[in-house]
Amino acid sequence: MSKPRLLDRLARCVGAGVIFFTPQQELLPYSFSVCHNFSNNVPEYQALILGLEVATELNIHQLEIYGDSQLVINQLFGDYEVRKAELIPYHDYAKRLLQSINLVSI
């Protein structure tokens, strides 16, 4: 019996999510999945970008960012250089989105 193709494709999918906690402690969850061959940091950047886009749409001007990728966080705040060419467009877009938020802490 051959391996189902759908399962093979799902093995290359990654999911990412963003959760906003409002000042009233309400949860606003957002999630997505990507099926492509990337480094692990591409979905990390995509989750960050999703969160920043939603924050911009909701006119959020003060934001605390929590992430499990220290590489992405350190690249975002200039502590580490972005060396992989595939990450540069994500990094640049995230930096542009951050400009619309007045106060950011990590």
Radius of gyration: 16 Å
Lateral arrangement of strands in the main beta sheet: 1-2
The counted number of beta strands is: 4
Specify the structural class.
Answer: alpha+beta
Q: Can you tell me the number of structural domains?
A: 1
Distance between the termini: 50 Å
Q: Given the structure, what is the number of helices?
A: 4
Amount of helix: 25-40%
- The geometry reads as globular
**Annotated CATH architecture:** 2-Layer Sandwich
Might you state the CATH topology name?
A: Nucleotidyltransferase, domain 5
Summed over residues and divided by their number, the pLDDT gives a mean of: 78
CATH class call: Alpha Beta
Instruction: Report the sheet with the most strands, covering strand number, pairing sense and barrel closure.
Output: 2 strands, antiparallel
Q: How would you name the CATH homologous superfamily?
A: Ribonuclease H-like superfamily/Ribonuclease H
Summarize the helix and strand pattern as letters.
HEEHEHHE
InterPro entries: RNaseH-like_sf, RNaseH_domain, RNaseH_sf
GO molecular function: nucleic acid binding; RNA-DNA hybrid ribonuclease activity
Protein name: RNase H type-1 domain-containing protein
Domain RNase H type-1: 15-103
